[in-house]
């Protein structure tokens, strides 16, 4: 008992800046990556709110989509199918970039990341063109619940793709400046997690908008 | 030949105090600024409440038009909920959590500063409604279609400012929640296992999970409302196939968990205070942790009890889930009562406010259980009974908890003690004023007085109780004077606090008051949830 209470003295804190950051000393998930996963969790809930609104609106409508806009949801021929394929491919190229930097292969990492950024920009160009065509068909944000939900859901997804492209561009720029290595590449991992999330949201959106048959 | 000698300077680059505070990433300074910012909006919201109460003191319209009355009660609730209670608790969390887990700072200090500075910006946006043709006036709930831009609803810019401000505050909360969760999971000192964390840290963790999962959902509702108002959308517009009930569902999916965001950290605070002033460990530590988690989880399944009268929700389910919340809450009441049972009680100001919390929050829980019963709720919905309930949990609960925490941690934040007598004067005034204001509202609600009305008939029989409530409101306002005087005197010439004035249990009292920027020179060994108690008395043999 006495020896035990004597051992309860204070121990000095070392002021190594990394000492208290669990990642470097105790292993486990790093702070930035855990932060990004939590941020993605909040984004999932944000889209859950929008999706809930979509399903609620769809459920209370007699005919969905409204007849005059039914043709806007055709998968073929449209720009949506190539856009979807390109976005899914970009998730793979993004992951190739991550695997490359984990091995320390910077050249392959930069190439794969550059392709990912180009694919992301292409998706945005295709979506903008699609919006322009739909606008010509008379589908706008104010043309009833269908227009409102369609543009809000795809628009917020597009905004997230835009954010993802900026994130990946910063990662690419930093990669070209030689800031990442097999040991230090948290930013690459975090940005790729976000990019996969954006991709998954699009697959869900594509499914509920274009694959699930209409009603009425 | 002139020689130039370089004098190496060991101190940090000299900057003005103001510059230092505005650009700081130190969680302690950020926490203190959260607290100050929240107090500012508490006073603004309080003045609005006094005007509202003055208008209701007697039948007839004396001070306001109906339109300004709507603006005032809307802004009162908005300030109190979104810019006082939630950020105040986040501020205490910011200050206390890294200290209590033995960390040098939060995980993302710059994001922490960003979370803070979004709040005054949002407050300015809300206030600017007063000079741009009227603030939001659709109530803090801003139900569609009342909040839509139809000519007779809310056509003004104030409602848009309100939406943008709330999205900003929500973003601030989400970033703060991410910061808390990463800090708590990744930055605990060696020996600080999850079940040795102080209860305050557990409640902040649970709250952060609620914020993380619920706040983005209201962001989506606010964005939909914004699109409806500004871009011709028809989410909530029944004329174009939209659904106003959809807004209520999404709004309450956030706003019910938000109730727990506003109470759980206050529960954490008094769970720190009661053991210290009872000189006993918290009774049933693990039960308390699981009860906190249970409240958090159940909190996501009760939102539609705010919507019983819409006829659009499944009543038995939401009523049952609401009653279930009473179980973990009851567990906590017993934790607190048995912590005090046969303890060596000292009634310092923090303890008095904590006991005030217990009694008032109990009343708030009981009248909440009334409202959870569907047939009773059908009678009480949108009456003053509900106003009484929310103030018993939010004022009697959260605000008494905040005051307890303020008196408890003020010596750590400033290095000075607050005056005990003035503290007790404040408590007595506030306790009497609070009950005078809000207890009669139960009776008013049962007598059928609806909420959100500026005027009532002199023959309705509500005159006396309304007058009593108004007098009580001014008594609450008066109770702020001893607090302000106390802070002023204490900062100028308060008694030095020393490291550990309360002989407390947790790590923040192991460092100096106020702590150095890096928090700790030495950490005691952590072998229980009371490392400082162990340091003073030796470890308990059964640990």
Structural account:
The complex is a heterodimer of chains A (216) and B (543). Chain A has 216 residues and is an all-alpha fold. Chain A has one domain: Four Helix Bundle (Hemerythrin (Met), subunit A) (Up-down Bundle), CATH 1.20.120. Chain A has helices at residues 2-6, 22-26, 31-60, 80-103, 106-136, 144-176, 186-211, and one strand at residues 10-12. By secondary structure, chain B is an all-alpha fold. Chain B has a single domain, classed as Cytochrome C Oxidase, Chain A (Up-down Bundle). Chain B has helices at 17-22, 27-56, 66-100, 109-128, 157-186, 199-230, 244-278, 285-298, 315-340, 349-372, 374-380, 384-414, 420-446, 463-493, 531-537, and one strand spanning 522-524. At the A-B interface, strand 1, helix 3 and helix 6 of A face helix 5, helix 6, helix 7 and strand 1 of B. Strand 1 of chain A pairs antiparallel with strand 1 (522-524) of chain B, so a sheet runs across the interface.
In short:
Chain A has helices spanning 2-6, 22-26, 31-60, 80-103, 106-136, 144-176, 186-211, and one strand at residues 10-12.
**Element-by-element helix/strand order of chain B:** HHHHHHHHHHHHHHEH
Please report the total strand number of chain A as a whole number.
1
Mean pLDDT of chain B, nearest integer?
A: 94
The structure class of chain B reads mainly alpha
Q: What's the count of strands of chain B?
A: 1
Going by CATH, the homologous superfamily of chain B would be: Cytochrome c oxidase-like, subunit I domain
Q: Helices and strands of chain A, in N-to-C order?
A: HEHHHHHH
């Amino acid at each position: 008992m006495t020896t035990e209470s004597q051992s309860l003295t204070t121990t000095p804190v070392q002021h190594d800046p990394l000492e208290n950051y669990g990642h470097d000393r105790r292993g486990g998930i790093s702070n930035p990556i855990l932060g990004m996963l939590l941020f993605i969790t909040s984004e999932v809930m944000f889209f859950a709110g929008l999706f809930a609104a979509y399903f609620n609106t769809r459920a209370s409508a007699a005919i969905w989509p409204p007849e005059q806009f039914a043709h806007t949801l055709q998968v073929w021929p449209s720009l949506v199918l190539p856009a979807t394929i390109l976005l899914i491919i970009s998730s793979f190229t993004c992951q190739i970039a991550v695997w490359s930097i984990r091995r320390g292969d910077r050249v392959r990492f930069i190439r794969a990341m550059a392709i990912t950024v180009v694919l992301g920009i292409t998706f945005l160009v295709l979506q903008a063109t699609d919006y322009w065509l739909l606008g010509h068909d008379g589908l706008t944000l104010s043309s009833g619940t269908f227009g409102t939900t369609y543009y809000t859901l795809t628009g917020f997804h597009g905004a997230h793709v835009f954010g993802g492209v900026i994130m990946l561009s910063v990662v690419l720029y930093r990669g070209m400046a030689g800031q990442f290595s097999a040991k230090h590449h948290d930013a690459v991992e975090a940005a790729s997690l976000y990019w996969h999330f954006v991709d998954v949201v699009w697959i869900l959106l594509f499914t509920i908008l274009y694959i699930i048959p209409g009603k009425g | 030949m002139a020689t130039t000698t370089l004098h190496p300077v060991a101190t940090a680059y000299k900057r003005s105090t103001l510059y230092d505070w505005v650009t700081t990433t130190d969680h302690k300074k950020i926490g203190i600024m959260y607290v100050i910012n929240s107090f500012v909006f508490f006073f603004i919201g309080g003045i609005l409440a006094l005007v509202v109460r003055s208008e209701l003191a007697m039948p007839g319209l004396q001070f306001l038009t109906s339109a300004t009355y709507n603006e005032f009660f809307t802004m009162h609730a908005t300030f109190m909920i979104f810019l006082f209670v939630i950020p105040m608790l986040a501020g205490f969390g910011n200050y206390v959590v890294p200290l209590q887990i033995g960390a040098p700072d939060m995980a993302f200090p710059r994001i922490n500063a960003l979370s803070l500075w979004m709040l005054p910006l949002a407050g300015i946006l809300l206030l600017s409604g007063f000079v741009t043709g009227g603030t939001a006036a659709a109530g803090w709930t801003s139900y569609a279609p009342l909040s839509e831009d139809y000519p007779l609803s809310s056509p003004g810019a104030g409602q848009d400012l309100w939406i943008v401000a709330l999205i900003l505050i929500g973003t601030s909360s989400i970033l703060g929640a991410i910061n808390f969760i990463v800090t708590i999971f990744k930055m605990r000192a060696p020996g600080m296992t999850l079940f040795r964390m102080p209860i305050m840290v557990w409640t902040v963790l649970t709250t952060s999970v609620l914020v993380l999962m619920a706040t983005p959902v209201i962001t989506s509702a606010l964005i939909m409302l914004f699109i409806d108002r500004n871009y011709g959308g028809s989410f909530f517009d029944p004329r174009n196939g939209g659904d106003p009930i959809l807004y209520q569902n999404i709004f309450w999916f956030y706003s019910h968990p938000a109730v727990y965001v506003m109470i759980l950290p206050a529960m954490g605070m008094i769970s720190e205070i009661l053991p210290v002033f009872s000189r006993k460990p918290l009774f049933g530590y693990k039960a308390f942790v699981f009860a906190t988690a249970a409240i958090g989880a159940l909190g996501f399944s009760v939102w539609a009890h705010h919507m019983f009268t819409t006829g659009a929700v499944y009543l038995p389910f939401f009523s049952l889930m609401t009653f279930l919340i009473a179980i973990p809450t009851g567990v906590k009441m017993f934790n607190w009562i048995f912590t005090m049972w046969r303890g060596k009680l000292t009634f310092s100001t923090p303890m008095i406010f904590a006991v005030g919390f217990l009694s008032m929050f109990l009343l708030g829980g009981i009248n909440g259980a009334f409202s959870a019963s569907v047939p009773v709720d059908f009678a009480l919905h949108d009456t003053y009974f509900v106003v009484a309930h929310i103030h018993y949990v939010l004022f009697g609960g959260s605000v008494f908890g905040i005051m307890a925490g303020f008196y408890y941690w003020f010596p750590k934040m400033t290095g000075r003690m607050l005056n005990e007598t003035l503290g007790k004067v404040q408590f007595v005034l506030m306790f009497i004023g609070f009950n005078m204001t809000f207890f009669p509202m139960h009776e008013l609600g049962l007598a059928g007085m609806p909420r959100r009305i500026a005027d009532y008939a002199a023959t309705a029989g509500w005159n006396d109780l309304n007058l009593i409530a108004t007098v009580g409101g001014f008594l609450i306002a008066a109770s702020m004077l001893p607090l302000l005087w106390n802070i002023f005197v204490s900062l100028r010439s308060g008694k030095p606090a020393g490291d550990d004035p309360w002989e407390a249990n947790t790590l923040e009292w192991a460092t100096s008051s106020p702590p150095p920027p890096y928090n700790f020179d030495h950490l005691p060994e952590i072998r229980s949830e009371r490392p400082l108690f162990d340091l003073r008395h030796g470890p308990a043999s059964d640990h």
